[in-house]
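Tutorial handout. Part one gives the primary structure; part two gives the three-dimensional structure as tokens.
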Amino acid sequence: MRYKQIIFDVDDTLIDFAATENFALHSLFQAHHWQLTDNMQRDYHAYNQGLWRKLEQGRIDYNQLSKTVFSEFIKENLGIDIDGIAIMNEYRSYFSEAHKLLPGVIDTLRFAKKHNYVLTILSNGEAFMQRHRLQLAGIDKYFSLIVTSEEAGFAKPDTRIFDYFFAHTEIGPEETVFFGDGLQSDILGAENYGFDSIWYNHRKRKNNMNLHPLYEVATYPEFVALLKGDLQKQPQ
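Part two.
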């Protein structure tokens, strides 16, 4: 059976997250005349990713993440007490303006749309920010449904975000495949919910979670090659 619907993640699947984070962080530090070293930037990335893993594991919520990120990081690295929420909101304003697409995205979306796949999005993030970035990138028009964790009230891989998503689309999980870069969010989420996924492993990470995506690809042309083969659901 041919899949009818492809769900895409946003950050580091469609839009280059490293470029976005780099732009937003430098813009924030420049606005406040704070010094940002290469080591600090690496530390921030690791620290922020750790908080997002806690969010995905249900150990903190989105508000806790928002309050914590910069209040603790700036205090530890610069010795300055700040309003964490205010600085986070400022950072997000810069983040929402960055929209560099990963190589091959546009051609892939055009191909998939031409071949009658229903294209949708499920993203851990804020509704306005993600929609705004997709619009700036010129690709929002390809997607018939965009769902974020802010709207759903839950983050991937929580099964409840998938309940919310499939309640808003007419195509069920049995005819859907998830395309995303996140093992702990996208691939685990799809696997726990009982539908197929394709791991976009362009960062060449190790699958250390014993997950079983249907395919693993490192480039968009590899994904298009699967679509050209008329991507089929594998028999159980």
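Part three, for discussion. The mean pLDDT is 94. Strands lie at 5-8, 118-123, 145-148, 176-180, 196-200, 215-217.
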